[in-house]
Each structure stands twice: as structure tokens, then as C-alpha cells.
Amino acid sequence: FFSGKSAAALRSDSFMVVIGDELDEWGLTKDGDPVKLIEKRTNTYGDRAKICLSSTPKNISPITESLGAI
Prior knowledge:
This protein is an alpha+beta fold. It is 29% helix and 11% strand. The chain has a two-stranded parallel ribbon. β1, α2 (34-42) and β2 (50-53) form a beta-alpha-beta unit. The longest helix has 9 residues, at 34-42. The relative contact order is 0.24.
């Protein structure tokens, strides 16, 4: 378990399964986009890695962009 707002947590371990809630509230960290950091942390597991992101959508936000909604 880790916080999307904690860059240190995102770069310290590898994860096979990531469930991220309220993505639109995460914002950028000093190390960049938390979603890109998560994707890098799951690379160890290749095709077995699973990433599930959810959020209450806003007009323009990371979750709507990831869904191709804009």
C-alpha cells in the first residue's frame, strides 16, 4: 500500500498489481507523473502486471485523458 502523492513510495518497490483511486487528486510529484512511475514499477512483471485506475471524472483531468475522453 502506498500513496500516489509519495514519489519515494512509487520508486522504491516493484508491484505486480496496482489499484489507484481518485487519480485526479494525485497531481504531479517532483519526479513527474505518478501514472508513468507506476507503469515503470510494474515492468518487472511484464504481461502479468495489472494496473487499475479510477477517479471521479472532471472535464479535463488525468483520468479522462487516459480514457481518451477528450
